[in-house]
Design goal:
Number of helices: 5
Strand content: 15-25%
Helix content: 25-40%
Number of domains: 2
Length: 165
């Protein structure tokens, strides 16, 4: 069953998928229109799930489910992954590439291939104050409070420790 994202509890489970390229406003609108019926019919072993989808920064497709209403099953999670794959194929974008870091510069999400992160820190392109997206957040509360974090407070902190030694 579809619900508004803001009505989900903070404990709602989330999955963040990142597009390999910025999505246009028309693509965002099409995703929002097309995915709502899928979420409305989302179920685990025949029991409706209470869920929602949100797109942020024209890059991030966030799926959430209220586990307090009913727990998703492996099959229902697989169904949501299928939706994301189909959207990616239709729009010629990859939502599953984990080989890049997502940085926020002037409110816009940019990518940096992971092999280039260390050099970007050494060159000062990424500082401890640079905002990065932590796409491994697991709940709506984490999404709201720990999704955009300073690089120095993230998994990137190991590179800053090396740079200052």
């Amino acid at each position: 069953m579809w619900t508004s994202f803001d009505k989900l509890p903070d404990t709602a489970r989330t999955w963040v998928y990142q597009s390999s390229r910025p999505l246009t406003e028309a693509e965002v609108a099409a995703i929002e229109k097309d995915i709502q019926p899928a979420v409305d019919n989302w179920a685990a072993h025949g029991t409706p799930l209470l869920g929602s989808v949100q797109l942020r920064n024209n890059r991030f497709l966030i799926i959430a489910v209220d586990e307090g209403h009913h727990l998703p099953s492996g099959c229902s999670i697989d169904a949501s992954v299928r939706w994301v794959r189909e959207i990616g194929l239709a729009l010629n974008t990859d939502f599953f590439d984990r080989s890049v870091a997502f940085l926020s510069q002037d409110g816009v999400a940019h990518t940096l291939p992971l092999p280039q992160v260390k050099a970007a820190v050494a060159d000062g392109q990424i500082t401890p104050e640079t905002t990065i997206f932590n796409n491994l957040v697991a709940t709506k509360a984490e999404l709201e409070n720990n999704w955009q974090v300073k690089a120095g407070d993230s998994w990137l902190k190991r590179y800053f420790n090396r740079a200052t030694v």
